[in-house]
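Appendix B. One record, verbatim.
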Amino acid sequence: MALLCLFIAFETVAKPPNIVLIVGDDVGYSDLGAYGGEINTPNLDALAAAGTRFANFHVTASCSPTRAMLMTGVDNHLSGLGNMAITMPFEHQGKPGYEGVLNDQVVTIAEMLKDNGYHTYQIGKWHLGNAPEKRPYNRGFDRTIALGDTGADNWQQRSYLPTYDKAHWYADGEAHTLPDDFYSSKYFVDKAIEFIDSNQADHKPFFAYIGFQAVHIPLQAPKAFVEKYHGRYASGWEPLRQKRLEQAIQLGLIPSSTQLSSLSSTDDWAALSEEEKAYSARRMAVYAGMLDAMDFHIGRLVAHLKTIGEYENTVFIFLSDNGPEPSDPLQIISISPWVKFNYSVDIEELGAKGTYTAIGPSWASAAASPGNFYKFYAGEGGVRVPLIVTGPGIIENNIAKSFAHIKDIVPTILQLSGTPDHQGNFHGKTVMPITGASLYPVLQGKKSVTHGKEKYIGYELAGNAALYKGDYKLVKNLPPLGDGEWHLYNITADPGEHQDLRDVFPMLTEQMIAHYNRYAEAHGVLEMPEGYNYIKQATFYSAKLILLRNLPYIIGGLMIVLVGYTYLRRRAKRRNSSATPMIKG
């Protein structure tokens, strides 16, 4: 009997931890309270206090390339997302590494965990392929509720852009219809709880991957959450950006010497009319309310895990897929008419069902504070995001300041769960090896650095590029905001990328350029065509999809016009003929 009790006790202690991986969409570096933000995020802040916050964590500047690395631990150029389809130049389409979906040369973390006895659940945004074989249900997940698109409406089953004919939702690999009372953040947590509870009886660990739509366009949130921020942003974006900088310094996330860089895309708040200021402030209030609502529902999940006795044995990982979104569909000529025809943009209703808004580049620069640039660009505002990890064995109230990368998440989960690395061979098939490094020693307090000073990590997406080595970052951003030239920053001492060190350390700059060229060659990075501009490419791609989808209607309309014109012309000809007087000979 004593041996049996000892065996049961050993099994209880040895049970691998559950893992909840949460991705916020377009959440800026300083949006959370734990990172210096004014938005109410008590549940994520509590997780941060119970574990480790990473001050220097990097992803890619767009969603699906980040998600490809998050799922595989393999560089985006090797896993199929060398670029997103919407911003991919036609010359690159179909080339190796530029499939635009998660390719078959990589293994997902769900597949590895499933082999190790985990239940695996995916809920929310997937965006790694809509074809049946690319959906998460066929990439290692037992149960799924997946959005295949870049985004969607948060209140209804409808597309948020004219590029999509509908919102593509899937449940366990099949087309899915959302409930009438759908709100994205609430629904995702409801389904996560349902999936977790469905297998409670067998006591196996679970892996739940939740991809929230907050705070991706369109910004939508229940009115009670939005009203909490009414009037909060009446002073504009520059004071907010400065205040967040000061708070991040006070929290110990960034050095006290950090300075902000300016962007030409940031408007002059004082030059706006009072009406324009009120409307803009309301848009930011909806953004804050949407993030607040996401945090509230994360709190529901945490509370449920405590109720069922699973919280103490659960590792929580929260991160954002990229920096804040600067695009404003209401300012894009090809999209604005569609938005205004299909949605309300009335200030009094913003956030509610049937409404549409976005924060635009000026507020995005504040959400990214203290970083330079924002989503789509390789500046720190586009690629440095929050990362919170908490759970058993992880030291509390810790701030990790050394460089960390999105490819590190898979090795970390493998070590936390006791799951073996496939080492480039999975079920007898040769696959791309995992190239990230485990953050677990840092999480335990045994190490302060994950990547040594001599190790370099390359990055490229849509022509914007970077190379990280020790404290330094070599970076190049294309127009319209960048100049297409290499610059060098010490991003540990200068996260605002304020002081360019290119001319101060010319030898280091040249060395890092050489490292980047080696990275690009080894990973099949393709040169961008002359004159490439991601905004123009995305506009052209969207217009092409809209045209192709509506081509039958356009052809039908032209045929009707042609038939009508022919009929009217013949009728006029007959009238003219009958009106001509007969000349008698």
